[in-house]
Design a protein that fits this description.
Two copies of one chain form a homodimer. In chain A, 80% of the residues lie in helices and 0% in strands. Chain A is an all-alpha fold. The structure holds a DNA duplex.
Chain lengths: 201, 201
Amino acid sequence: MVNFTPTEEKIFEAATAVFIEKGLDGARMQEIADKAGINKALLHYYFRSKEKLFKTIFFNTLTNLKPVITQFFMEEDNLENKVTKFVGGYIDFISRNPHIPLFILNELRKKPDFFLENMDSHKMINFSKIEQILNKEINEGRIIEIDYRHFIVNMISLTIFPFIGKPIIQFFSKMNDEKFQQFILERKKIIPEIIMNSIRP
Amino acid sequence: MVNFTPTEEKIFEAATAVFIEKGLDGARMQEIADKAGINKALLHYYFRSKEKLFKTIFFNTLTNLKPVITQFFMEEDNLENKVTKFVGGYIDFISRNPHIPLFILNELRKKPDFFLENMDSHKMINFSKIEQILNKEINEGRIIEIDYRHFIVNMISLTIFPFIGKPIIQFFSKMNDEKFQQFILERKKIIPEIIMNSIRP
DNA sequence: GTCTATAAAGGGATAGAC
DNA sequence: GTCTATCCCTTTATAGAC
């Protein structure tokens, strides 16, 4: 993180790991201090309270999710490329940080206001461009009529849910971690096909 | 719950609501007692510890999820009917209990063993039937080659994720609760179409 | 800035009266 | 079976020395 002293940086790294793994309620300041190689008092010296430290971590984590989203919603490209990039980009990112989706969604459910109050949504997502692209394709008869909200939710559902449901999927289909990673990679190809198939006339 | 005295029943109802909303770490015995209209001591009299009370709630909640799953994996029917019933059944159930998926998946991630140790998986799900049905369709050329695991994960992702992502979806697409419910109902029709489309030759 | 020690509050669990 | 009172460990947060 920019503008952080080395100590702040250590705390930040440790807190990120602990909060994402345990959640706000499950995380312990002691564990964060241990992981950062300092003591509890220093946590409060730098970040004042658990709540404030959590906020820093939470919104930074959200920020890390932005690039692939903004690329999808803002960049000029054809529909299939956009979908392929989004799915590939997200699978790569979440593969490296597999606990982030559940962390975000879970904390968000407990405090929905938290989000509204602190997000600058319009700098992140503007539906008008993707809506416009879809409408053009619909009007020129290249795809069927589709509500852009379902289109987006379908794409995100297929991409992210497998990470959230990992323990159940692995349990029932008896995949080890390696097989599961393989399974996830296969989806980079499968999901864009499903999405594009679902709107073909 | 069967075999419960009226007091146990009250505790059970209150604990279910609180644990599902707050999670194991976030739940407070005091809040459960208040909601049940009794005091903390009685909770321990009947359920011994927070951990034991939680286990009761958790596994009962899992049991409630079973019928639609077993119907899908066990019942004799054609593929399209199976998918339609599964999607419809789950959307109905989760609409009535919208916080259950995140509750289950979140607790499961924190303690993956919890599940393995206590689930009688094979009474619940047996993949051989659905695999067999898919293979028959593939061999007779009515659908394309598809890994049954992706087929199942796709169906579940499209059905369940929108509930998990509700706060984000509502935030970005500016739907109120009524509109969101409408959005979810539309998916009963959309999801089976996508799934069946994705395997058409 | 960083530490040790400790205050202060929170929350699960139990004893004992009724 | 149900209550009040209380124990006691855990955890956040601060005071104060260095």
